[in-house]
Specification:
Helix content: 25-40%
Shape: elongated
Number of helices: 3
Radius of gyration: 25 Å
Length: about 110
């Protein structure tokens, strides 16, 4: 018999839910139960009717929880100390040298005739 796996997930406006299960999860038929979760992080007011936490604070709190659980990827950020390219540098990188064959010819050469 499998031990239960309990996950806290956010259901967005699109009502789609994607769950990545741990690698050691056995395959086979499972029961899925969805119930509303009430937590202090989702409460929007205190007893005085004032906001208990701004959305930025909530987001940061959730980010910390995801990082602690090893579920937040930061791979899309440039390494610390990286210097951003200027607009001119980016334009130069995206421009073929003078006299080079047009890009569509190079693509046709790679892919073959269509």
């Amino acid at each position: 018999m499998m031990d239960a796996i309990k996950l806290a997930v956010w259901v967005g406006e699109d009502k789609k839910l994607i769950i990545d299960l741990p690698a050691d999860t056995p395959v086979g038929l499972v029961d899925v139960q969805i119930s509303r979760r009430e937590t202090e992080i989702l409460e929007s007011s205190t007893a005085h009717g004032e906001p208990s936490e701004t959305w930025a604070e909530k987001r940061e709190h959730l980010r910390k929880q995801l990082i602690a659980a090893g579920l937040l990827s930061t791979a899309h950020y440039a390494p610390e100390g990286t210097i951003a390219l200027s607009a001119e540098d980016l334009l130069q990188l995206g421009t073929l040298p003078p006299g080079t064959r047009p890009t569509d010819e190079l693509i046709d050469e790679d892919r073959g005739a269509h």
